[in-house]
């Protein structure tokens, strides 16, 4: 059976793939992750997670164009699938519902504008 | 600046590494990404940092998903998984061969491991002491003709080793055998071996203390240390520390420490330790150990101390030297109570040889069976080859199948060991200083090596067969089958040689057990009765006590004579006493020099009690002799030694006892009898008539009244020693325990031999199985044409028996030579009889017949139509 749960790191990467759109390949995603979170990550770790997300059916990929910087090698561009988008939404909704049940924050003071 | 960095490329080695392990389909994108990363790092940081980062990224790609050699979840079935699946299937389908192969590995590794445990324990005897190689024992040779004996140089010669720079220090040890010290606690009496030693003992020897500080416990003269099992014996489960133990004639001692039990690979054993300064003199001198440093040179030092003892009036011609402690277990077996446990180098060699043979036999066996199996798979293999399987695939297939065997056999061996362990260790009296993990590791390593060895042989064999030949059915011409026969023959050579060896060893052992000892060993019982009278310095008190004891003694002697079951009794060392020592004797008025002759003290009843045969003259007698007269009885060996012809002229003299000025008249000669262990030749013996009240009694008891007699003696004993338990030894029991070691080793040997023989039979069995299967069509045709079942069996069997016969011819001379050498280790040897050799041949051929004929019969009795119809 395929595992369809979404881990924290997986969720972040999935969002980054969405943000980067046409530029979503392993190196760029890792760079973006580092600049957004200021946490170091290896390309291998990112690649392995992307691979897992593909296995779960949240991502699909195809080879893109090559550049000189890459020594003429092509890059693999990732795009979110419909099921990936649905899972992301579900993850967000779930967290919001949790936030709403949190008595200190529920209702008045904090507004998440959703 | 930027331009200057353009030529910098990622580290080549890292790139190579990545290319080596990464999946081909990932290589392009990953290398591209890493290049981009490298250049972007280069823009902001130094080249070194960029390179370091590249390495970091490469290492981080060492993940299952990117790994070439890892199975890919997306493809339906990976090659490796397939190999394992096939290996398992093959394993299950050919139950017989799989099981036999597995038995081969398990038995081979397991037997070798068990033998290794014993050999290792023997070989590392005493090596747990850190100073093992740095300890030396001073020994003295009283004159040129004497043997070396350990001596306490500090006590006798006031030797001062501090002036020798190569000596770090010395420690004295006195060993008290269990009958010399009597421990009592709560009016119960306990006995055990006692080690009396200096407070620095633990600086020299690494016996472990469970309780107590090794530097302190022996400083206080009233302390005693007990081993764990001794403490358990006395105190049961209650706390021993601080308790007081009385030691008769020595005072009371407080338990200050508990020792771990002495390991089995220690040549010295004892049950408790007492500080030597608790008493000024302990009655015996004991032996000394010197701790040397690196500048020690044995020869130079021996020369320095050679004359150290010559000032002493008793040791005027003596020569001092040293013996390495590390040599005392195997090579220089000293005559001392403390180091009385000895090993035999030939026993180790024998066991090693057995282990080697078993290992070889099992490796051959395994290879043989596996190649038989792989030949039966040849057609399948050819088809795979035609479908594009490469050589490397077959290697993987082999590796997978061997891995399956390896894992299963490691588990089986380990479990088997856990089951056998207590029995085995107990049987050989071993303590194991390995934890379970070490054991598992060793077993795994051994199995691994085993598998590697067999795999290498298999690789050499299988790769050369062409698929075409296999498919077209030309298998009979393949040379490898001959190789299998040769291997089986070699196995049989080993097996036959081992059967012969077992026969000889058994015969030698039986011979030692049943040899006429020269005395009647039946129903001889010995026991101690009187203790030595204590001497506290008061002469009058001592005299009175001695008189009292003499009176008691006379009474006891009278009473013993009255007990109806006692046939004879005597005071004197019973034969097989280990402590019979020697003295320099010579024949007066002859050219002989003084030579070391064993001395036995016996009273007038000794010959009758023990059952000695007098061949000339007479034995001591109460009516003619008084004790301590200058009269001796000698044995036949002594008579021959000095060439004595006429007893009346024969006088002996000892340099210890007045020399030739005070000679001893020989009054009789007894037939040779084994007064020592049977592994020794009967040496010349001189017997003197010395009575000693505290000597043990030896009784000859009537067999039918044995129990009642022991009870009466016990009662008599209790009236004089109300607090002591009556203990006695039956000579036959003692004899048996003396042979215990040999007996156990022989049994172990027999078991392992049996294993080797069974393994060889399994090998032959599988060979026969395959051979007959291969010739099933031929058999069918022969039967159709008119051959009888008997003829077919004969045809098939002779084919194998040929090889077994060849094995005999090779094995006989080898075994003959080896056993001749082995028997040289014994003073009393049994001759090598032809029937052992014939018997071994017969046994092996019967075994071979049984295994082969079973196969041949089932093949021959089959309906030939069945065999011919199937294609």
Automatic annotation (TrEMBL), chain A:
Source species, domain of life: Bacteria
**All copies of domain Transcription regulator PadR N-terminal, residue ranges:** 19-90
Which Pfam families is this protein grouped with?
A: PadR
Which InterPro entries does this UniProt record tie to the protein?
Tscrpt_reg_PadR_N (IPR005149), WH-like_DNA-bd_sf (IPR036388), WH_DNA-bd_sf (IPR036390)
**SUPFAM superfamilies tied to this protein:** Winged helix' DNA-binding domain
Name listed for the protein in its UniProt record = PadR family transcriptional regulator
TrEMBL record, chain B:
Compartments annotated for it: namely: Cell membrane
| Record's bilayer topology term | Multi-pass membrane protein
Q: Can you tell me where the transmembrane regions are?
A: 96-119, 353-373, 394-420, 440-465, 486-506, 749-770, 791-814, 834-853
Kindly indicate whether the keyword Cell cycle belongs to this entry. no
Query: Taking every annotated instance into account, which residue ranges of this chain make up the domain MacB-like periplasmic core?
Result: 98-280
| Gene Ontology MF term list | transmembrane transporter activity
Query: Mind listing the UniProt keywords for this protein, alphabetically?
Result: Cell membrane, Membrane, Transmembrane, Transmembrane helix
Q: Which InterPro entries match?
A: ABC3_permease_C (IPR003838), MacB_PCD (IPR025857), Macrolide_Exporter_MacB (IPR050250), Permease_put_prefix (IPR047699)
Query: What sequence ranges are listed for the domain ABC3 transporter permease C-terminal?
Result: 751-864
Keyword check for Transport, yes or no. Answer: no
Its chief place of residence is membrane
- One cellular-component annotation, GO: plasma membrane
Its protein name is Uncharacterized protein
């Amino acid at each position: 059976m395929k595992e369809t749960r979404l881990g924290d790191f997986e969720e972040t990467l999935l969002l980054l793939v969405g943000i980067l759109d046409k530029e979503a390949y392993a190196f760029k995603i890792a760079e973006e992750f580092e600049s957004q979170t200021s946490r170091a990550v290896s390309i291998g770790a990112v690649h392995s997670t992307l691979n897992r997300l593909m296995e779960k059916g949240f991502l699909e990929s195809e080879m893109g164009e090559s550049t000189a910087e890459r020594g003429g090698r092509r890059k693999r561009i990732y795009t979110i699938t419909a099921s990936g988008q649905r899972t992301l939404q579900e993850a967000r909704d779930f967290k919001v519902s949790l936030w709403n049940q949190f008595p200190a924050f529920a209702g008045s003071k904090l507004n998440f504008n959703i | 600046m930027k331009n200057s960095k353009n030529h910098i490329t990622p580290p080549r080695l890292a790139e190579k590494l990545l290319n080596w392990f990464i999946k081909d389909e990932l290589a392009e994108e990953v290398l591209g990404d890493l290049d981009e990363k490298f250049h972007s790092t280069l823009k902001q940081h130094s080249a070194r940092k960029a390179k370091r980062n590249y390495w970091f990224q490469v290492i981080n790609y060492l993940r299952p998903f990117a790994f070439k050699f890892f199975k890919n979840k997306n493809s339906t079935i990976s090659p490796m998984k397939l190999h394992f699946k096939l290996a398992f299937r093959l394993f299950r389908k050919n139950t017989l061969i799989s099981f036999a192969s597995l038995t081969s590995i398990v038995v081979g590794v397991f037997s070798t491991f068990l033998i290794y445990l014993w050999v290792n324990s023997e070989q590392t005897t005493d090596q747990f002491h850190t100073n093992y190689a740095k300890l030396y024992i001073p020994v003295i040779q009283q004159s040129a003709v004497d043997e070396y004996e350990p001596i306490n140089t500090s006590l006798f010669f006031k030797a001062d080793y501090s002036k020798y720079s190569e000596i770090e220090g010395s420690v004295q040890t006195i060993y008290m055998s269990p009958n010399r010290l009597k421990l009592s606690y709560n009016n119960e009496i306990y006995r055990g071996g006692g080690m009396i030693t200096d407070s620095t003992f633990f600086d020299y020897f690494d016996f472990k203390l469970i309780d107590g500080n090794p530097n302190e416990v022996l400083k206080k003269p009233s302390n005693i240390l007990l081993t764990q099992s001794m403490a358990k014996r006395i105190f049961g489960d209650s706390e021993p520390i601080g308790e007081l133990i009385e030691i008769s004639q020595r005072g009371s001692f407080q338990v200050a420490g508990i020792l771990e039990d002495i390991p089995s690979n220690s040549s010295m054993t004892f049950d408790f330790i007492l500080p030597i300064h608790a008493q000024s003199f302990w009655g015996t001198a004991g032996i000394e150990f010197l701790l040397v440093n690196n500048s020690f040179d044995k020869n130079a030092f021996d020369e320095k101390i050679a004359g150290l003892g010559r000032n002493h009036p008793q040791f005027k011609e003596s020569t001092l030297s040293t013996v390495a402690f590390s040599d005392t277990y195997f090579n220089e077996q000293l005559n001392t109570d403390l180091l009385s446990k000895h090993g035999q180098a030939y026993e180790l060699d024998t066991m090693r040889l057995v282990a080697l043979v078993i290992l070889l036999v099992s490796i051959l066996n395994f290879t043989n069976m596996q190649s038989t199996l792989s030949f039966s798979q040849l057609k399948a293999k050819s088809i795979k080859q035609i479908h594009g399987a490469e050589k490397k695939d077959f290697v993987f297939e082999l590796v997978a199948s061997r891995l399956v065997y390896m894992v299963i056999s490691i588990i089986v061996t380990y479990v088997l060991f856990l089951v056998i362990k207590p029995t085995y260790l107990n049987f050989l009296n071993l303590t194991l200083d390995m934890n379970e993990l070490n054991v598992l590791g060793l077993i795994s390593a051994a199995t691994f090596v085993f598998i590697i060895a067999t795999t290498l042989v298999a690789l050499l064999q299988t790769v050369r067969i062409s698929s075409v030949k296999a498919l077209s059915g030309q298998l009979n011409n393949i040379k490898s089958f001959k190789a299998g026969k040769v291997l089986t023959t070699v196995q049989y050579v080993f097996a036959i040689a081992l059967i012969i060896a077992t026969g000889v060893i058994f015969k030698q052992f039986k011979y030692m057990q049943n040899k006429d000892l020269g005395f009647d060993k039946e129903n001889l019982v010995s026991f101690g009765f009187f203790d030595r009278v204590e001497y506290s310095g008061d002469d009058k008190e001592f005299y009175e006590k001695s008189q009292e004891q003499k009176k008691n003694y006379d009474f006891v002697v009278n009473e013993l004579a009255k007990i109806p079951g006692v046939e004879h009794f005597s005071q004197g060392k019973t034969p097989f006493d280990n402590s019979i020592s020697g003295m320099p004797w010579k024949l007066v008025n002859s050219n002989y020099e003084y030579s070391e002759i064993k001395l036995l003290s016996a009273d007038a009843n000794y010959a009758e009690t023990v059952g000695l045969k007098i061949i000339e003259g007479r034995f001591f007698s109460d009516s003619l002799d008084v004790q301590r007269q200058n009269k001796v009885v000698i044995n036949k060996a002594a008579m021959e030694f000095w060439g004595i012809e006429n007893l009346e002229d024969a006088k002996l003299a000892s340099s210890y006892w007045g020399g030739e000025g005070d000679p001893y008249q020989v009054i009789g000669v007894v037939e040779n009898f084994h007064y020592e262990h049977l592994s020794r030749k009967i040496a010349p013996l001189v017997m003197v008539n010395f009575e000693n009240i505290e000597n043990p009694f030896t009784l000859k008891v009537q067999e039918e009244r044995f129990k009642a007699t022991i009870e009466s003696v016990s009662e008599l004993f209790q009236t004089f020693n109300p607090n002591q338990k009556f203990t006695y030894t039956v000579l036959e029991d003692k004899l048996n325990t003396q042979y215990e070691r040999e007996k156990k080793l022989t049994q172990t040997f027999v078991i392992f031999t049996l294993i080797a023989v069974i393994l060889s039979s399994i090998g032959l069995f599988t060979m026969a199985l395959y051979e007959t299967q291969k010739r099933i069509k031929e058999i069918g045709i022969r039967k159709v044409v008119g051959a009888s079942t008997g003829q077919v069996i004969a045809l098939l069997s002779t084919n194998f028996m040929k090889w077994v016969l060849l094995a005999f011819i090779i094995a006989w001379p080898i075994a003959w030579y080896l056993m001749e050498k082995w028997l040289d280790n014994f003073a009393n040897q049994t001759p090598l009889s032809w029937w052992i050799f014939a018997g071994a041949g017969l046994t092996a051929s019967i075994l071979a017949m049984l295994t082969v004929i079973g196969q041949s019969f089932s093949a021959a009795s089959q309906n030939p139509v069945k065999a011919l119809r199937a294609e």
